[in-house]
Structure formats: structure tokens, C-alpha cells
Design a protein that fits this description.
It contains nine helices and seven strands; from the N terminus they run E-H-E-H-E-H-H-E-H-E-H-E-H-H-H-E. The chain is globular. The protein is α/β, with parallel strands linked by helices.
Length: 252
């Protein structure tokens, strides 16, 4: 398959990491599908189109099974060409810029984070698997988090639990689809400058950056560059792995 034949679908693509990843894949020559519940996803796709890239969008809630299962119909003639899936969508609720600790966490907040971050990832992946495994070549990338690798003070327990769950899902899935020529890997960003981190108290971000060996927070484009490598032909022998993008803040 040529690059222009490999359609890439990115969830949570309306802003932040998702927007950066989608842009990078479009620049590499992939037709891109931007999926998000946010109405801003349409404008993001239109901006890519106006820049000369090939892009479509689908506005839906990935935690809704019926909406996810409608993806093949929504993409139409693009669906048989789907070869790359980037599971990026995720939420991390904050209250006045701070997480809720487990003792204070309402069940509905816990469930909503699991529904979007973990169940939504499962639903999108399950829906895409038949076409991804049909080419003899495919790429799945899970955007997890440093919070899936070690304790971090900013995200809540629900966020960390879902990102750890995505890592486990990726390991099992990698073994299931390796024979079909599909790789499944995780990218675990550390502290990255996005709208999600912008919602945190600025002093928290400053303190966090001071403890990173690189001395700064990361850029969304640096995460996107790692994803671009993992969906390339050159990454065909890497699967079931987690790639850290955190400025050295988690070394193991």
C-alpha cells in the first residue's frame, strides 16, 4: 500500500495532541479522518483541507456503541482503505484546576472517564479491526500516559486506571493481530503543553517542569512525531511496546 492509500483515523482530533497527530499524518501524505465529539472537529478538518491536505471528519461520542458502529457508513468509500488507527481521545476531569481524590470521587465521574477513555477505545478498535486486518498491513497506536507507568500527582485515579487499561489492551491485542501484519503500540506522553494541561494551576505546571530532566514540558508536535514513526513501514518490527515521550521524567 502506498502512503496515499493508507487512511488514518484519529480520535480526539479536535484539539491538542489529536490535532497535532492528525496534522503530522496529513503532512506525511495520509488521508486523515478526524473523530471527536467536539463541534470544533469540523473546523479542524476544514483547516487541513484549506491547507491542501485530504481530510474528513466524523462527530460522534466514542463511548456510544451505536455511533461508533456507524463509522463504516460515515466513511463510505474511505472505509476499505483504513489502515491506521490512533486512539487518542480521553478526558481528565479537574475541579478548580485540581483532581478529585478517590475518597471524594463520585461514581458518575469515575464511570464517565472509563466510558470514554477505555470503553471508547475498545469500541473504536473493535469496529476498525476487520478492515485493519484485511490488508496484511496495519497500525494501531494507543495514546496512553506517563500516568499509566508510574504515579503522577496531577491526573485522578480514574484517568490513570484507564491509561493503564489501554496499555494492557494494547499488549493483548498486539499478540492477537501480529499474524495479520498489524502492529499495536502505545505512546506514553509526560507533561505536554495542551488544553488539558492548561486547565491545571500554572504553578503546578511550573513545579512539574522543574522536575523534568529536560527542564521543560513537551510539545504536542513531539508526540505526533513519535506516532508518525510508529505508523511508518520502518516500525513494522515494533509491537506490544510503549514509547515514552516525557523529557526523561520517567526512566526505567
Amino acid at each position: 500500500m502506498e502512503v496515499g492509500d493508507k487512511v488514518a483515523l484519529v480520535t480526539g482530533a479536535a484539539r491538542g495532541l489529536g490535532a497535532a497527530i492528525t496534522t503530522r499524518l496529513a503532512q506525511a501524505g495520509h488521508p486523515v479522518v478526524l473523530v471527536d465529539q467536539d463541534a470544533a472537529v469540523e473546523q479542524c478538518a476544514l483547516s487541513l483541507q484549506s491547507a491542501g491536505y485530504v481530510a474528513r471528519w466524523a462527530r460522534l461520542d466514542i463511548s456510544n456503541e451505536a455511533e461508533v458502529m456507524a463509522l463504516p457508513a460515515l466513511l463510505g468509500d474511505w472505509w476499505p482503505r483504513l489502515a491506521i488507527l490512533v486512539n487518542n481521545a480521553g478526558i481528565s476531569p479537574k475541579h478548580e484546576g485540581k483532581k478529585r481524590e478517590v475518597i471524594d470521587m463520585p461514581l458518575d465521574e469515575w464511570r464517565r472517564v472509563l466510558d470514554v477513555n477505555l470503553t471508547g477505545t475498545f469500541l473504536v478498535t473493535r469496529t476498525c479491526l476487520p478492515v485493519l486486518t484485511s490488508h496484511g498491513w496495519g497500525r494501531i497506536v494507543m495514546i496512553t500516559s506517563q500516568a499509566a507507568r508510574t504515579r503522577t500527582p496531577v491526573p485522578g485515579a480514574h484517568y490513570s486506571a484507564t491509561k493503564s487499561g489501554m496499555t494492557g489492551l494494547a499488549r493483548v491485542l498486539a499478540g492477537e493481530v501480529a499474524g495479520a501484519g498489524v502492529t499495536v503500540n502505545c505512546v506514553a506522553p509526560g507533561r505536554i503543553e495542551t488544553s488539558m494541561t492548561a486547565g491545571v494551576n500554572p504553578e503546578v505546571n511550573r513545579q512539574h517542569a522543574a522536575g523534568i530532566p529536560a527542564g521543560r514540558m513537551g510539545k504536542a508536535e513531539e508526540v505526533a512525531a513519535t506516532v508518525a514513526f510508529l505508523v511508518s513501514d520502518g516500525a513494522g518490527y515494533s509491537t506490544g511496546a510503549t514509547f515514552d515521550v516525557n523529557g526523561g521524567s520517567f526512566m526505567h
